[in-house]
Amino acid sequence: MHFLLALLNAHDWTMRHVTTFSTEVFSLLNSIIYFHKAVQELQRAHADLSLAAFLYAVIGAIGTMLVAIFLSTAEKWKPLFHRYIRMGLSEYAAAISIVVFVGMPHVGELASLDRSTLHVSTSFRPSDPERAAFFVRFWHLPIAWVSAALVPGFIITVLFFFDHEVSSIICTIDRYSTKKPGGFAWDIVLLVMTTGLCGVLGIPPANGLLPQAPLHSESLMHSEQEEILICVDGEEKVESRDVKRVYEQRWSAFLHAGAILLFVSPPFQHVLGLTPTSVLAGLFMFMGEQSLSVNPILYRFSYLLTPLSELPALPLDVKGYRGVHTYTIVQIVITVIIFIVTLTKAAPAFPVLIIILVPIRLLLMNKLWHRETLRFVDAWACRRGTPEDDKDLLASGFSEKDAGAGAGLPERMPPPGDV
């Protein structure tokens, strides 16, 4: 099913209808899930450890997060240290923090505390004692089982496709000023291979979203000088300005994959087993914070807490902040509802709920919100303009193809949080 989606280039005829309304909800959901996973790890630590060890686990989790956040701002420490040192501290903030807090429990009196560490295998074999080898002889399985597997296979296909597509979109928004187009179809082909291999080996499938995580994109951000042509008093002049971009390369993603492969093989699994679960909780909190910090919902939520006199001016066509506030509250409520669903047995169906948001935005919300308010807070996720812009272009005589390509549109001002 993944292969068919890639072969038919499903990205172009599915994700072109997705707006930032859905991607922002999905990003906020990911942030909440990260924080929830951190709480779950600490709950397990509370059940397994003594009180003193649990209190240190809480300190270790919060410390891992705070040190990583602090180091991630190293680019702003100028004139301290050389530029490359600041860049290294910023890009490897999470890794440095993890190493520090993995080693800290072995120092001084902390070494006497009991601790909960990651469970790892002691040998390269399946963890299920009933299986002697990884390879699954699927040709010996009953036809009924194969037919029944089509249902979870369809669910996994929908989950992985939408999860990957939206994550890729989030990591290539205007904020990151990417120049190279996304290889969505090729990514899905790679997903076909890894998911199929996991099935044959009888291990849980993983879609490897780390390279498409906002945390990864944020670590690759840097400033560049860009020359633009401006017109002053009828004369054209060249002006330089600082532009934030990401380093568009394949090495960091390749090294991520190589490190994962390295640490699932002995003897490095033993090294991985030294990691306290509290450090994992701290990493989850850091990833949640990094994802949340660039989500426009957070910026618009801050407007809810800001006195009206202190709010920034809106475009002239937007009639007050009431519509903006309502839009933000609806996004938060929807996210909470979907998160609650993920805690139930219906959790695998949560991508369907995200997909349902697409027709809701295009068919329903334009009847409940003023079009200029929607034009201000929302936009197409994968192309220029907004749904409202496309309707205006169609009304002006542009073809549906030209309207979909954003022909005739001026450069769009970024909504709150994209700057």
Structural account:
This protein is mainly α. Helices cover 57% and strands 6% of the residues. A two-stranded antiparallel sheet has the order 1-2. A hairpin with a 2-residue loop joins β1 and β2. The longest helix is centred in the first third of the chain and has 29 residues.
Which features does this protein show?
single chain, 419 residues, disordered C terminus
**Radius of gyration (Å):** 24 Å
One letter per element, helices H and strands E, the order comes to HHHHHHHHHHEEHHHHHHHHH
For the sheet with most strands, the description reads: 2 strands, antiparallel
Could you give the order of strands across the largest sheet?
A: 1-2
Structural class: mainly alpha
The amount of helix comes to 55-70%
Strand content: 5-15%
- Poorly predicted residue ranges: 408-419
Shape: globular
Span between N and C termini? 38 Å
Tally of contiguous helical segments: 19
Averaged pLDDT: 80
Provide the fold topology.
Layout: H1 2-7, H2 10-14, H3 20-48, H4 51-71, H5 83-91, H6 93-103, H7 143-148, H8 150-170, H9 184-201, H10 214-219, E1 221-232, E2 235-246, H11 251-263, H12 268-272, H13 277-293, H14 296-304, H15 322-342, H16 350-368, H17 371-377, H18 387-395, H19 400-404
Antiparallel strand pairs: 1-2
Helix pairs in contact: 3-4, 3-8, 3-13, 3-15, 3-16, 4-6, 4-13, 6-13, 8-9, 8-16, 14-15
